[in-house]
Give the backbone structure.
Amino acid sequence: MRADDTGPAGHSTWPTDSVGQVRWEDFEFVDPLALECGQTLPRYTLRVERYGELNADRSNAVLICHALSGDHHAAGYYRADERKPGWWDACIGPGKPIDTNRFHVVSLNNLGGCAGSSGPLTANPATGQPWGPDFPIVTVRDWVQSQNRLRQALGIPHWAAVIGGSLGGMQALQWGIDFPDLVRHVVAIAAAPRLSTQNIAFNEVARQAILTDPDFCDGHYRREGRNPARGLMLARMLGHITYLSDAAMANKFGRELISGKPGFSFAPEFQVESYLRYQGSQFIDRFDANSYLRMTKALDYFDPAREFGGDLDATLRQMQARTLFIAFTRDWRFSPERSEELVRAALRAGRDVSYACIDSPLGHDDFLVPVPDYLAVFGGYMARVAETCL
Amino acid sequence: MITPALSPQTESMALRTDYQVISEWIPRGARVLDLGCGDGELLAHLARVRDVRGYGLELDMANIRQCVARGVNVIQRDLDEGLADFAKDSFDIVVMSQALQVVQEPDALLAEMLRVGHRGIVTFPNFGHWSTRWQFAWSGRMPRTRTLPDHWYDTANIHLCTLKDFEDLCRQRGYRVIRSAMTDARHRRSAGHRLLPNLRAEVGIYLLEDPA
């Protein structure tokens, strides 16, 4: 392992509660990683960002796990002229719930992703060519294994907390289950013990949009100089429908016709149509279809109770970490009921657990935005974590 | 849902006397469930002095924020949803302080708390206190007192009872009253509460068991 590459640099005046300028580092791992699918990654790269100082006893490190389309760039800015900070800047920074004055924050791009870590876009060491569709299907457990290698590489004895929302929350839970002595706290936000059938159905439609795109070429689109942009865009549009509540969509976009009267055409006439098209078209510039397919499969397969005969109580009995679950009232993709399944199991398992259901308007997307009650509960919890690890 | 029947002044005292009584009744190291745990003061105190492990159930977000910040395990939950997902005897003690009178079905919740806990501790404002009786008899209007400061239309206290009413219910359901204590609105105990408690006590505290 070595940190052999760093991201672009720049400087500017950032908001005082921003981590400011950040850069990424690549960590190379040469010990083969056996995956759940039976394949082995002979070597791999993890792209990582770190914010805040590691303290002298190395006890204040927290791991951030990203969701479906996230990456290592969780907070701050790369360049002075950048408009948008990292994806979880609402929660990471000086004085924010994950306070970089108190914590050493580690955030990575997961295996199979497309933002710098080994995945379909990076070279297969066996061939020297991009992996493309041959990159193995990785699971939440595989990610946790790779993240544990990263922990070792960084010389971090244990995580003060492993934190994530949505698919990230699932990784945080898996951490607590697979490495109980290496995690002091788990914060799982808008998570679920496993996907509902309906959720798998949404993922399947998203995958079919990609797989049936004529430009998909069985996943070899890059080699063919093509890109299944339409399929990826549709997949993302579908996702965005599920990330917002009915009421939030109505509030945000209404159903006024942009031109004031029906145009009797299929051009975008309602604001929500332009929103979805915009989100979809933005996405194809930054995401890879093969990665998207893999991320959705990781979601579908996640079911930590499977190896405990479906007994979620027994599963959570493995954990030693104190756990905070947070859900959002209008989230129907990962509804509060799903978090409450986890809470009930944790209670029955006798784990230290807290749970708050935040009354907020957006839906699943609420975990990314600064809802006051959310920040207060999350921040109050993390302040306790900081006290117990310092 | 858990609006304390007590005035803010009494809430901010160092440690409420009913909490002192409750903590004296809780064995060291007990597993405790606190129904309507408020800001977590009792559980934090019990963890400190009694080495208790437990959870609080609470609905109010401001209270939940405080519980989390003081390191108390708190689950956001409406007590009216019941305790069906807790197994029998999951806890040594289930505490319900000043929540009995605000829930939809106090008798059902009482039965539930004595199912999931080996024992239960209940505290509630005594509607039989002389000041309540006096006000009602004299003015012909719903009483407003130190322990019950709200109007009839905006109070969270929908199931008020007297000490005698409560003891009748316990008898009728076969619950054993192991101990009881009476305090005034500031949760002070005095000898007078032992004499004519239903007239003189403003708050009743009971330690119960369901032998069934």
